[in-house]
Model the fold of this input.
Amino acid sequence: MKRRRVALSGALLIVCLVLAAFVAPAANAHVKSFNATLTLQYKSQTQTFFGTLGTNRVCKGDRLVTLYDADTDTPVATTTTKDNGQYRISFVADGGPYYTRVEEEVRGGYGHVHTCEGDQSRTIDTSKGKGRGPGVLGNVGSGSESGSESDGVLPFTGSELTLFVLIGAVAIGAGVLTLKTVKTRRGRATTVRPAQPAHRVQVKTKGLR
Done:
């Protein structure tokens, strides 16, 4: 009877764990949107465009940045941001205006979707850098992080935390049940049955005739 109870309890714990894996993410799913601020600078000496993508850390790295010719709105070069949001494009400018753009991107998966918004930098007139040495044009010093890490995401989502708690509870419950089972079996093995009273055998003797 006790073995059946132990088996039933274990089965119920397993069922609870499986249900939690599917139900908890749906209950704790969240969608977050993070603003972005894209800066652009230009160094005439090295013919280099560079800047920073200011946004939450989950949206900084590996974002596609495109350099456009502002006169024709034609893309002329692309690159991707580093983990810290910085980017650099080597391009020989013709002295005209240019700007960069980063498109909106959705990251994450089921249970935690992050919408990384796009942005367009200011337009830089590269002709102002000609004949002025290694000057830097553009919005130097800007690039504040809108929707930055202060609004960031926890290392674990609500669904993951719930799952961890349930796993811990299941592990504790399984340990308690195992301990009880071992103690029960040991108790049965060490039980000594009381000695049965010895039966006296009476021998009747008949008298000799």
